Amino acid sequence: MNRLVRITRDLLLTVLIFLLLGLVIVRMSDADREAVSGRARVVDGDTLVMAGQRIRLVGIDAPELRQVCARDGQAWACGRASKDHLEALIGEASASCSADGSDRYGRLLAVCLVEEVDLNAAMVGNGFAVAFGHYEADEEAARRKRLGLWAGTFDAPRTWRQTHGGMDEMPHMPTGSVGMMMSGIGSWLAGLWDD
To answer: What is this structure's pTM?
Structure first.
C-alpha cells in the first residue's frame, strides 16, 4: 500500500510541475504582447489596418462585406452595416490595440480600444458581430435585446464563409485561457494533495 501511495504522490507531483512550467511559459508569452496605436482603417466588421499591420479583432466574428441577412422579411447588407458600425465606433479617434500573437493569415489578434471603449465587446454587444471564442455575455445581451444581426435572421459568419468560399478559421481562444485552465488544474491538484 505504501508503494502505491508513493507512486501516486510522485505522479501527481510530476503533473503539477509540468502544469506550473506551462503556466510560467504562458505568463512569459503574455509579456510579449504587441501594442499598435494610431489611425485605423476599417476593412470589415472585425478587421483593421493600422500602422501598416492587419489586425483581426480577437474573440469576435463579423459578417463578411458581401454577406446579406434578413430583417423584417427584407434582405439587408449586414456585412456592410457591420463595417459601417465599426467605422462609427472609431470615428476620427485614434485606436490602441494590444495584440497577443497572430492568426494563420498573418493578422495580429488584438483587443482594440478607442477612448476606453473596447471595440471587440462593443461590436458583439451592439449585435454587429458574434462571439468567436470570447464575449459570450455581450452576445447574449444583444440577442435578448434583438440588436443588429439579432433583429432578423442570418448565417453565422463562419458558416457563410464556408458556403461562399471564404477564408475559414477556428474560434479564437480568450487571452489567458490556457493559463487560467492550468491554474485551475493546479488548484485542484493542490486540494487533492491536502486531503
So the answer is: 0.72
